[in-house]
Amino acid sequence: MGELARYLVLAALLFGIGLAGVLTRRNAIVVLIGIELMLNAANLNFIAFWRHGPHPEALTGVMFVLFAIAIAAAEAAVGLALVIAVYRHYRTTNLDQIEEMKG
Amino acid sequence: MQDILFYVFAALTLVCGFLVVANPISRSPVTSALFLVLTIVSLSGLFVLLHAFFLAAVQIVVYAGAALVLFLFVIMMLDLKAEERRRITRLGLIGGGLVAVAMAWLFRVVPREAALVASGPAHVEGSTPALGALLFTQYLLPFEAISLVLVAGMVGAILLSRKEPS
Question: Residue A70: its chain B contacts at CB < 8 A?
């Protein structure tokens, strides 16, 4: 396996782990943590492609990851605020019990 | 040496990531958050191996510093009961097995067919001065936009999480 390919395989495995967490865990906070794992797997892909791409001096991949990290921070803050708001209303963060808006 | 370090950090990332979502001992969100930090730290080790030094530092500062504190504070504020374990149904077992087989097949086929490695790794480092210069010239507009996004996120978080005035 080439040096790029093994980074891609690692990122795919990490993304799969995060996705499994989002799909199987029922605590809203752990679901948010799973989303963070998936974001990090995507970041690792960006860096690996930047490093092994044709124009690494343009720093495009690094820039992309920098912005992705900023977006992820904002996402975590808003997501956790939503969890707090939902907890105030329902007294739980279990996603199976929050089903009032279910169609 | 680089190969050994890659495999060490990769194994740490995968094991800690697995313990984040499926810890066999504890189902508490606190352990999940702490294992997330270990995952982040080993990922930033991988970033160093890829010569993205500034990003490795940012990764630790933002995730292990800011995001983890945010997660832990929210977990502390809410009185959470430990999540009960889910029963694994036969359908889930078959579906998961199918997905695992498909992924293993992808891992075998894709690197061979796509010929991903066109050139060897370049000898360019993600140096911080070059990054800063680019950020204030070519990427100035996205840079200002991201600060707006952060302000909007902050205001939104405060607005959403404050108590209803009743």
Answer: 146, 149-150
Q: Does the CB of A90 have a partner CB in chain B at under 8 Å?
A: no
Chain A residue at shortest CA distance from B135: A63
Number of H helices, E strands in chain B: 7, 0
| Range B2-85+118-161 has CATH code 2.60.40.10 | no
Q: Which domains does chain A have, with CATH numbers?
A: 3-97 (1.10.287.3510)
Comparing B54 with A4, the larger pLDDT belongs to: B54
Mean pLDDT score of chain B: 85
Residues in A closer than 8 angstroms to B43, CB to CB, are 40, 43-44
Please count the residues of chain B.
Answer: 166
Of A21, A43, A73, the CB nearest to B67: A73
Q: Is the ipTM here above 0.85? A: yes
Q: Spell out a b/e string for B52-91, using b for 16 or more CB atoms within 10 Å of the CB, else e.
A: bbbbbebbbebbbeebbebbbebbeebebeebeeeeeeee
Domain edges within chain B? 2-85+118-161
Instruction: Identify the segments of chain B with pLDDT beneath 70.
Output: 82-86, 111-126, 165-166
Measure CA B26 to chain center. Answer: 21
**Closest to B66 measured CA to CA, from B98, B33, B106, B113:** B33
